[in-house]
Amino acid sequence: MSKNLRVGFIGSGWAERVQIPAFKIGGLHAQAIASGRVENAERAASQHAIPEVYADWRDLVASEAVDIVSITTPPNLHAEIAVTALQAGKHVICEKPTALNAAEAEKMLAAAQAAPNQLAIVDHELRFTPQRQAIRRLFRQHYVGRGLWVELTWRYPARLDPAQPWNWWSDVEQGGGALGAIGSHLLDLSRWLFGHIEMLSAQLKTGLVYRNDPGTGDERLVTADDHAHIALRFTNGMDGAITASAISPGAPGMTVTLYGTEGALRLDEADRLWGMKAAAFAAGEWTEIDVDDPVKANSELPAGTSFARGSVYLAQAIARTLGSGEHWIADAASFYDGLKAQQMIDAARRSHAEQAWVRF
Fold first, then answer.
1. Per-residue model confidence (pLDDT) at position 304
2. Structure confidence at residue 299 (pLDDT)
3. Is residue 53 left, alpha or beta, with left meaning phi > 0 and alpha meaning psi from -120 to 50?
4. What is the CATH code of the structural domain delimited by 130-292?
5. Mean pLDDT of all residues in the chain?
6. What is the value of pTM for the model shown?
C-alpha cells in the first residue's frame, strides 16, 4: 500500500464541507470526486485541487488511482456503491446511516466479509473524539459505579426554517430524516459506549409537513421525520433516552449525560467533559475533566465541530493502519456495527408505527 493513500469521494455535500479538508489534515490525499451534479464536483475539485472529477460514481470506483472510496451520497445509494467498490478491491468508508434498511446492510456486511483485506467502515467519526473515548474508558473503569441511565441529545434548528426546500432529506424513501442523519450517530454511540441494547421505543415527528420543491415550484409532502425520541433498555440493566432533533431552536450541539450509583459524567455542547462523584450528588457540583485534544486547536479545522475533529482523528487512524499494512481499526464502526445501528433504526420505525416497544 502506498504511503500516500488516495481517496475518491462520491457525493459533494458533506465531503466538500468537512471530509476533504479534515482528511487532508489527517494525512489522506483527495484524489477524485464524483457527483450526480458534476458542477458540484467541479467546484469542490477546484477548491481543493482534486485531480479527477466524474459525473458517474462507477467511473470513480474504476479509477486505478483511487485506494479508498468515501461514500457521502443519500442513503438509498450506499449499498450499491459500497458493494461495487469492495468488489473492485477498494477500501470503503460509508456515511451513515449504513443503508436504507437492515436487508441492504446485510448485503454490505457480506461484501465486506468477502474482502477481509480491505477496510470497510461506517463514518461514525464521533467514536474517535478524545472526549467520547474518555467516557468509554471511565465507564469501563467504573467511575460512575453501576450505570443507571444515560441521556444523549443532538439538537439543531435547520428544519424549523420553512424556506428549507424539499430535497432527499425530506424523503424517507431516500433515507432522509433526523432518525437516520442524527439518530444513527446517537444509537451507535450508545451501543459503543455502554453496551448492547436489547429493546427500544420510539416516537418520530415531522415539524413542517410540506416544503417547496425547487424542481417544480410546488409544495411537496415531507415523508421523513424532523425529530426522533427513543427510549432504550440495555442488557446491562441501564436505561437510556435519545433525542435527535432538527427542529430545536438555538445553536447546534450534542450532549451525553450518564448517571450511576457512584458518580456521573456529562459531555456538554462545547465538548467539555465533566464528572461528579457521589459525595457531590446533593450539591450537584460538576468538576471539569481535562481531556487532551490536540486537533481542537488546529486553525485549518473545518466547521470546528466534533464531527470535523472526529473526521481528522479517523483519517489519522486510517492512514496509520493502512500505511502499516493492517486492515482493522479497533475503534471504527465496522459494517457489522453498521448493521446493528441499521437494525435499531428499523426497530425505531417499527416502534413508532406500532406504538410499542420492540425487542431485537
1. 64
2. 78
3. beta
4. 3.30.360.10
5. 97
6. 0.96
Cell numbers that stand for 308 in this block: 470535523
**Contact between residue 22 and residue 72 where contact means Cβ atoms under 8 Å apart:** no
Given the C-alpha cell 415539524, which residue does it identify? 207
pLDDT at 59 over 70: yes
CATH superfamily, with its number, for domain 6-126+304-333: NAD(P)-binding Rossmann-like Domain (3.40.50.720)
pLDDT at 2: 45
CA distance linking residue 12 with residue 291, whole number of Å? 33
Which residue from 274, 157, 163 is spatially nearest to 211, judged by alpha carbons? Answer: 163
How many other CB atoms are found less than 10 A from the CB of residue 1? 13
Q: Where are the beta strands (DSSP E) in 246-341?
A: 253-260, 263-267, 273-277, 287-289, 333-334
- Angstrom distance (rounded) from CA 86 to CA 114: 9
Fold matches, 6-126+304-333 and 130-292: no
* Phi, psi (degrees; rounded to nearest 5) at 21: -65, -35
Burial degree of 335 (CB within 10 A; 0-12, 13-18, 19+): buried
Q: Which of 260, 255, 251 is nearest to 151 (CA)?
A: 255
pLDDT at position 1 is 42
Task: Show me where the domains of the chain are located.
Answer: 6-126+304-333, 130-292
CA distance 287 to 269: 16
Place of cell 425487542: 359
Per-residue pLDDT tens for 154-185? 999 999 999 999 999 999 999 999 999 999 99
